[in-house]
Specification:
Number of helices: 5
Order of helices and strands: HEEEEHEEHHH
Strand order of the largest sheet: 1-2-3-4-6-5
Helix content: 40-55%
Number of strands: 6
Strand content: 15-25%
């Protein structure tokens, strides 16, 4: 990775208090961004010959409603600042962005990572509800029937709750 880019990134990570580590590709840095709906977003940053590429996993290939999920993502692409959603050969969804190497600064990295985090974390629950509702209903029912914790499904209670299910935990 370009020395200026590496120094800018590692200094930014340290000042922002972000966890990071070297990636598996030569020159790759991987930073973990804390989220609210999605607990964390892991971003790969790799400098090429002319640009810094940032890529983060959003959700795995949806189980259902592919057309609605992809339409939702494409509509959001129209409003995204210098980043876009993409789908890999497995159907998994990523958000990716690029910065010209000469534009890499603490401010531009902050803007890029902020946009990636918002694009990964912001619509996360809606994407899960669109693409995995049947699986989530099955998981909810299984947990209720066995008295298991519903904590990580509470955000979806309104979609999943059945008559007679236990009330929301305090």
């Amino acid at each position: 990775m370009n020395e200026h880019v590496t120094t800018t990134l590692t200094t930014y990570f340290a000042e922002a208090g972000l966890e990071w580590e070297p990636g598996t590709s030569p020159g790759e840095l991987v930073v973990t961004l804390p989220g609210e709906k999605k607990l964390k977003t892991v971003v790969s940053l790799l400098a090429g010959e002319t640009s810094l590429v940032a890529r983060a996993f959003v959700i795995r290939n949806p189980d259902e409603n592919h057309d609605r999920v992809y339409r939702f993502l494409l509509a959001r692409n129209l409003r995204l600042p210098g980043i876009a959603y993409a789908v890999d050969s497995s159907g998994d969804v990523y958000v990716t962005g690029r910065l010209p190497l000469e534009a890499v600064s603490a401010d531009s990295v902050d803007h890029l990572l902020g946009a990636i985090l918002e694009s990964s974390d912001g619509p996360f629950n809606e994407l899960l509800a669109l693409g995995f509702l049947t699986s989530m209903r099955q998981e909810w029912a299984w947990r209720v029937d066995r008295g298991e914790s519903l904590r990580n499904l509470e955000a979806f209670r309104g979609l999943l709750e059945r008559p007679g299910d236990p009330p929301r935990a305090p």
